[in-house]
Each structure stands twice: as structure tokens, then as C-alpha cells.
Amino acid sequence: MLTDKYFRETINNEDLVEDDAGHITGVIPPDYLRRIAQTKSPAKEWSVLERDYADLIPYLIKGDNIPIEMVRSSEEESLATA
């Protein structure tokens, strides 16, 4: 399982959301990803988002942070296939 330390070393700390105890609870997605999800444009980027990251789209459309569990499982899958 990937640790908070891993995310602090690989993701800009300003994009991490922490609880009161200092544990990472989410990631603030970039504004450009939110715009792509909300407008479905540009078409090429939207198709990649829809194909490869469909589970993130509801969070992006609502403007919510992405729960760290989703990021963690995605990263673990990527590392397992590398």
C-alpha cells in the first residue's frame, strides 16, 4: 500500500488535502481537468479522460477533491503493471 510519504514526495504538497491529524484525505485536481470534464472539450482530451479516468469525472464535474483512496488504488495498479 502506498503511504502518505509516497504522495508527499510525488504530488505537489499544495494539491494535497489533509485532515486535522495531518493524514492525506484527497487531492485537489487541476483546474484544466475540471474544465475538460465540465465542458467535454477539447474532444481529444475528453475522450482520454472518459476512457481512462471515468471514475474521476463525477468529482471533476462537481468540483470536488479526489479521495486519496482513488488515487492510491490507481497508482498501485500503475506500479504493478510497470
In terms of topology, how is this protein built?
Layout: H1 4-10, E1 16-18, E2 24-27, H2 31-39, H3 43-52, H4 57-62, E3 66-67, H5 68-81
Antiparallel strand pairs: 1-2, 2-3
> Which structural class do the helices and strands define?
mainly alpha
How many distinct helices?
5
Helix-strand string = HEEHHHEH
Chain-averaged pLDDT: 87
Describe this structure in words.
With 82 residues, the chain is mainly alpha-helical. The chain folds into two domains: 1-27 and 67-82, no CATH class; 29-64, no CATH class. Helix content is 56%, strand content 11%. It has helices at residues 4-10, 31-39, 43-52, 57-62, 68-81, and strands spanning 16-18, 24-27, 66-67. The chain has a three-stranded antiparallel beta sheet. β1 and β2 form a beta hairpin. The chain is globular.
